[in-house]
Amino acid sequence: MDNIVVEGGARLNGVIAISGAKNAALPLMIASLLTDEPLILENVPHLADVELLIRILTNHGVDYHVEGKRHGQNGTEGRTIHFRAGQIVDTIAPYEFVSRMRASFWVIGPLLARMHKARVSLPGGCSIGTRPVDLFIDSLEALGAKMNVDGGYVVAEAPGGLKGATYRFPKVSVGATHVAMMAATLAEGRTELENAAREPEIADLARCLNAMGARISGAGTSTITIDGVAALGGTRHRVLPDRIETGTYAMAVAMAGGDVMLEGAEAGLIESPIAVLRQTGVEIEERNDGIRVARNGAGIRPVDVTTEPYPGFPTDLQAQLMALMTCAEGTSHITETIFENRFMHVQELARLGARINLDGQTAIVEGVPRLKGAPVMATDLRASVSLVIAGLAAEGETTVSRVYHLDRGFERLEAKLGGVGAKIRRVTV
Ligand code: EPZ
Questions:
Q1: Before 311, cis peptide (omega within 30)?
Q2: Does the reported pTM lie above 0.85?
Q3: Does the pLDDT of residue 124 top 80, yes or no?
Q4: Whose CA is nearest to atom 1 of ligand 1?
Q5: Residue 33 φ then ψ, to 5°
Q6: Each residue of 151-205: pLDDT tens digit?
Q7: Residue 130 binned pLDDT confidence (cut-offs 50, 70, 90)
Q8: Residues 384, 370, 279, 306: is their CA dihedral positive or negative?
Q9: Which of 125, 207, 265, 317 could tie 247 with a disulfide, CB 3.0–4.6 Å?
Q10: Residue 298 has what pLDDT?
Q11: How far apart are the first and last CA of the chain?
C-alpha cells in the first residue's frame, strides 16, 4: 500500500493541467450501454474509478480500446477511449463490483432501457453517508418499470419497454437524475423530470446523448424534458474539465501561497467556489485558457459556507475548504447539507493541530497560525486530498496513508503538485 509524504512550507508556482472530470466520465462511459454503435470519449482521466468501471462494462459485453497517442498530444492529456456495446451479454451487475463504486449502480438505467431488465447489486462507495437508492427506484417505477429488492439486488423489469412520464424528484440527486435521463432516452413518449440536479456533468451527459440521437432539452436546469427515440447511435464526445480538481488545486495554492495557472479549467463551472476563494483573499484571474490563482503574502480570511446542490458550493470541495480554513485569521463555519457523515477529515486535521468543533452538521473552525506535520489517514476521496492540502502548509512532514482513496479521483496528484514546487512523494510501504 502506498503513502503520500508531504514536506510543508514550499510555495506553489507554475502550471497545473486540469484533467477531464471523473464525475462526467463515469456516466458518459455508462451511456455506451445504450447503443450498439461506438461511443468515443476524449479526455477521459486516468483513474482507478475509470479502470474499475471499464471492467464492469466489459462484464456487460462492452468492448473498448484506448486510442494511440497522436502527434502533438502531450503526456498530460487524458486518453481517448472507444466503447462499443455491440451486444449486451449480461444484465446483472454483481456485488463484487457495485460494492466498490457507487456510480456503477447507474448501469441500471441503460440496461433497463435497452434490454428491458437489469439486476444490479445495491451499491457501496465512499463511506460518507447512508446513500440510499429510493430515488432511482421511484423514478424508474414512474417510467413503468417493475422494481423489487431481492437478496441485496435491485431487480428492474419492463417487459414492454419503458414509458415516458412526469416525475418530480422529492430531493435533488445527481445519480438519480443521470439514470432517469438515460433511461428516458429510449422510453416511449415524453418524460419530464422535475427538481432534477443541475450539475454541469448532467448537461455534459445530455450533450453527448443528444449527439447520439436522443432528444433532451433543459439539462442543466431543474426541469429536463426527454422525448424518447427508438434507438441511439454512436458519437465522439470530449469530457469536460474537472471542476472539483480545479477547486482542489485552487485551494492548495491558497493554502501554500504562490501563483499557479490551472490550465484548461473553466471558471464558469466553479463560480461559487471562486466567489468563496475571493472572499478568503485569494487572487483569481479567469482566462480563456484556464484560471490563474495566486496568494502572495496576504493572510487567509475566514468564510462561512454551506454546501448545496449545484450551483451552490459543492460538497466535494467541503473538506478542502476546511483544510484551508484551519489556517485562516479567525473563525469560520462550514455546514454540510448533502451527506450526513462527511466530516471524517475533522479528526485527521486535528492531528495536524487544527482546531475544529462540530455542532451537528456545522464545523466551527478556529484558524491557527501554523499546522504541524503528523501521520494521518485518508478516509474518502475528497477528505484524503484535504489532508494533502493541509500538509502543504504544515511545518515538517505529513504522511497520508490509505492513498488508494486518492487514486480513485485525482490523476497523478503528486506529479501535478510536485510540478509546481510542492515537496511531495509517494512511497510504497
Ligand atoms: C454524486 O454522487 C457524485 N458522484 C459525488 O461525488 C457528489 O458528492 C454527489 O453527487 C453530490 O454532489 C458522482 O458523480 C460519481 P446524490 P451521488 O445522489 O449521485 C441522497 C466524489 O467525491 N439520495 O446527488 O451518489 C444521498 O444520500 C463523489 O467524487 C437519496 O436520499 O449523490 C445524498 O444525501 C462522492 N436517495 C443526496 O441524496 C437516492 O436514491 C445527494 O446525493 C439517491 C440519493
A1: yes
A2: yes
A3: no
A4: 174
A5: -70, -15
A6: 889 999 999 999 999 999 999 999 999 999 999 999 999 999 999 999 999 999 9
A7: low
A8: positive
A9: 317
A10: 87
A11: 6
Q: Residue 129 pLDDT more than 60?
A: no
What CATH number does domain 22-238 carry, 3.40.50.300, 3.65.10.10, 1.10.287.1080, 3.40.190.10? 3.65.10.10
Q: Is the CB of 406 within 6 Å of ligand 1?
A: no
Domain ranges of the chain: 2-18+241-428, 22-238
Distance CA 272, CA 107 (A): 31
Give per-residue pLDDT as tens, 44-58. Answer: 999 999 999 999 999
- The pLDDT of residue 76: 47
Query: Contact 32/39 with Cβ under 8 angstroms?
Result: yes
At 84 the pLDDT is: 98
Q: Is the CB of 153 under 6 A from ligand 1?
A: no
27 closest CA partner among 183, 215, 214, 244: 183
Our answer on whether the CB atom of 14 is closer than 6 Å to any ligand 1 atom is no
- Find, among 38, 30, 29, the residue nearest to 86 by Cα: 38
Which residue from 365, 372, 383 is spatially nearest to 326, judged by alpha carbons? 365
Residue type (1 letter), 113: A
- Give the Å distances, CA to CA, from 115 to 140, 240, 417: 14, 29, 45
pLDDT digits (tens, 9 = 90+) for 249-294: 999 999 999 999 999 999 999 999 999 999 999 999 999 999 999 9
Catalytic residues: 126
**Domain spanning 2-18+241-428, CATH class:** alpha beta
Beta bridge partners of 236: 40
What span, in angstroms and rounded, lies between the C-alpha atoms of 95 and 99?
A: 5
From the alpha carbon of 136, which atom of ligand 1 is closest? 40
Residue with cell 465522439: 236
Q: At 129, which amino acid appears?
A: G
Decide whether 2-18+241-428 matches 22-238 in CATH topology: yes
